[in-house]
C-alpha cells in the first residue's frame, strides 16, 4: 500500500515516516508540509535520512497523488482541508489530529461518505482497551463515585483536554448513559461551589517532554479506583496509525475509529 504522511517534519510526522519504512506491505509515496515550510520542495531523505525520492509538497492534491492512504497528525484546519482533498481523490484518510471542533468533525463526516476515514484521539492498543474498561466501570458504579480525568503532556501541546482524555470522558459518559457535553466540567477556578453531582471533570498538566499520561479516577465513598495509561514511546501511536492505514484497503466509505481497526 502506498502511504503519504502529512505534517512530515513534526514530532509524529517523523515517527510516521519511520513506521511506514518499517511496516510490511507499506511504501512511502508522498509527504506534505504547510505552505512556507522550509522543507517544501526538498527531497525528504536529504532532510531526515528517510524517504529517498519523496519530495515534500505543500499542495494536498500533489502530496496525495498516487497514494492509497494519507496519515495525518497535523492541526485541525489542515486536517479538514486534507479530508476534502482525500474525498475528491478517493484516498483513505487516517487522522490522529486532536483539538477538532464539532464543525470540523461534521466536515470529516461528510468526507467519510466518499472514502474510508479512521480517526482516533489515541492510536494505541492500551488506550483503546482502556475506553472499554472505563465504560464498564462507569456503568457499574453509581453517581456517588465522582469521575475526574487527569492528563499530562509535553510543553508543546496546543490543545486541552487531550483527544485521549475526551475519548475516556466519552466512554465514561456512555457508561452512565449521558451525553458528555451535558456533564463535562473543563475549568474550575475561584469560588466554584460544590462539585455538581454526575459531573465528569478534566485536568490538564503541561510540561517538559511527557509523551502522554492519562488517569481516570472514580472517587467514591471511602475508596478511590484509578484506571491509568502511560505512553512511553511515540512510535506506539505511529505503528497504530500505519496499522489503520493498511486496514482501510478495500474498506467501504465511512468514519471509523481504532476500536474498529483493532476489532475490540
Ligand atoms: N491520535 C494519536 O494517537 C496522537 C495524536 N497526536 C496529535 O497529532 C497532532 C500533531 O502532534 P505533533 O506531531 O506532536 O505536533 P507537531 O507540531 O510536532 O507536528 C504537526 C506538524 O503538522 C504541520 N502542519 C501544520 N499545518 C499544516 C498544514 N496545513 N499542512 C501540512 N502540515 C501542517 C506542522 O508544521 P509547523 O510546525 O510548521 O506548523 C508540524 O510539522 C496533534 O493534534 C496531537 O495532539 C499526537 C500523538 C498521538
Ligand atoms: O499531542 C500529543 O503529544 C498527544 N496527543 C494525543 C492526545 O491529544 O490525546 C495522544 C497522545 O496522548 C499524545
TrEMBL record:
UniProt EC number: 1.17.1.8
Domain Dihydrodipicolinate reductase N-terminal per the UniProt entry, residue ranges: 1-123
Pfam families: DapB_C (PF05173), DapB_N (PF01113)
GO annotation, cellular component aspect: cytosol
Assembly information from the UniProt record: Homotetramer.
Similarity comment: Belongs to the DapB family.
Protein name: 4-hydroxy-tetrahydrodipicolinate reductase
Organism (species): Palleronia marisminoris
Amino acid at each position: 500500500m502506498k502511504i503519504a504522511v502529512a505534517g512530515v517534519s513534526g514530532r509524529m510526522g517523523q515517527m510516521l515516516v519511520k513506521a511506514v519504512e518499517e511496516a510490511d506491505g507499506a511504501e512511502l509515496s508522498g509527504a506534505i508540509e504547510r505552505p512556507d515550510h522550509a522543507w517544501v520542495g526538498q527531497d525528504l531523505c536529504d532532510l531526515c535520512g528517510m524517504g529517498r525520492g519523496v519530495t515534500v509538497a505543500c499542495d494536498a492534491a500533489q502530496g496525495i497523488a498516487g497514494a492509497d492512504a494519507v496519515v495525518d497528525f497535523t492541526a485541525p484546519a489542515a486536517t479538514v482541508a486534507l479530508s476534502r482533498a482525500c474525498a475528491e481523490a478517493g484516498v483513505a484518510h487516517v487522522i490522529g489530529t486532536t483539538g477538532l471542533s464539532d464543525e470540523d468533525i461534521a466536515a470529516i463526516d461528510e468526507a467519510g461518505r466518499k472514502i474510508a476515514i479512521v480517526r482516533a484521539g489515541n492510536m494505541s492498543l492500551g488506550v483503546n482497551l482502556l475506553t472499554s474498561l472505563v465504560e464498564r466501570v462507569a456503568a457499574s458504579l453509581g453517581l456517588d463515585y465522582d469521575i475526574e480525568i487527569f492528563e499530562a503532556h509535553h510543553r508543546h501541546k496546543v490543545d486541552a483536554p487531550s483527544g485521549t482524555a475526551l475519548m475516556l470522558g466519552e466512554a465514561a459518559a456512555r457508561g452512565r448513559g449521558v451525553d458528555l457535553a451535558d456533564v463535562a466540567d473543563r475549568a474550575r477556578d475561584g469560588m466554584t461551589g460544590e462539585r455538581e453531582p454526575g459531573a465528569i471533570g478534566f485536568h490538564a498538566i503541561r510540561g517538559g517532554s511527557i509523551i502522554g499520561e492519562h488517569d481516570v479516577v472514580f472517587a467514591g465513598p471511602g475508596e478511590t479506583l484509578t484506571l491509568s495509561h502511560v505512553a512511553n514511546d511515540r512510535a506506539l501511536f505511529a505503528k497504530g496509525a500505519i496499522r489503520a492505514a493498511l486496514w482501510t484497503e478495500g474498506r467501504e466509505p465511512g468514519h471509523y475509529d481504532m476500536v474498529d481497526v483493532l476489532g475490540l
